[in-house]
Amino acid sequence: MNVQAQPAAPAFDVERVRRDFPILRVQVNGQPLAYLDNAASAQRPQSVIDAELRYYAETHANVHRGVHTLSQRATDAYEGARDKVRRFINAASTREIVFVRGTTEAINLVAQSYGRPRLAPGDEILITWLEHHANIVPWQLLCEQTGAVLKVAPIDERGEVDLAAYERLLSPRTRIVAIAHVSNSLGTVLPVARMIALARFRDAVVLLDGAQAVPHMRVDVQALDCDFYAFSGHKMYAPTGIGVLYGREGLLDSMPPWQGGGDMILTVSFEKTTYNALPHKFEAGTPNIAGVVGLGAAVDYLEGLGSGLGLEAAAAYEHALLEHASRALAAVPGVRLIGTAREKSALVAFVLDGVHAHDLGTILDAEGIAIRTGHHCAMPVMDFFQVPATARASFCFYNTHAEVERLVAAVRRTREVFA
Q1: What CATH homologous superfamily does 14-40+309-418 map to?
Q2: Cα(73)–Cα(66) distance, rounded to whole angstroms?
Q3: pLDDT per position as a tens digit, 92-101
Q4: Domain 49-303 classification at class level
């Protein structure tokens, strides 16, 4: 029997994608830019830049408050972007999509609006050792305000969460579990489905910090079964100063407003204020309308990535970059990889013997290579691995294998100079 061969899946065309990002054509210190700092903030495609420019040039007005044409157009664009985000993460309703400044504000909103009225002395909040400061400090503040206790699940030398210890730390007093979907400092992809399921046995509410996940993988909040999911626009090719808090409608509806002012009210008198419906109850004041429009354009770009190549193909390409960089850097004498989890996002953290991370970052910058150096807002992770800082190269779908080779060659030359 003749079996007709199936056509091979099209290869990811990184050069076509790179043409969408004008900043990748600039030079830094006389060298072509190799931008390997995407975990801190990704670059913007021309379509996002154009969408924000068109809004300011043709549509700008305040939303929700005007009967004139521009206000109605701005409102349509703003609420249209909300529905794009809803579809992108598969929320059940636009009432579950709250626009905030970013992941940090989203977590603080949950801590103060959900946690503060509910937690009592002795109640527990469980996080992991991998968390960004934005998923540590708000809970410490909440514990100081309520008498609750912060518990921390440990990690191992790979940079993976000790699931057995996490399960033991869940108790009848656990009220909130707040964990990263992907670690910003190590790239570890946490087993969040299992961790959420374990938290459910204790009736704990679960928040996921998705800042590092949404740009690199499909996120389905209903399938995850989380209660809250927070992420930032600037890490997913959208403008800065805009982000999203997803929350289950029933929980958001039960929570008091976090801030007071315009647009979060229905009526105001000196005796009493009644609050607006979801999600507007949590969006006090004039919002970052242009940022929301840009966020909607970024969702459009990701959904149609590379003219149909898709987010899944991009994720596979990023994984190939990760494997290339991990192997090549590990082969450089004096390099120690920090965080070798079995499941990782496209991020490599490392140290080089005899060279401080900040010095390495400065040397690489002279060659047009942008990486991040420091503690990455994850000081407990640095303490665990007993390093003051790491160099972090983080990749996305517009990076190339040639840029990986430039990075490795520059690290190797630096080693030779300092040896």
Answers
A1: Aspartate Aminotransferase, domain 1 (3.90.1150.10)
A2: 10
A3: 999 999 999 9
A4: alpha beta
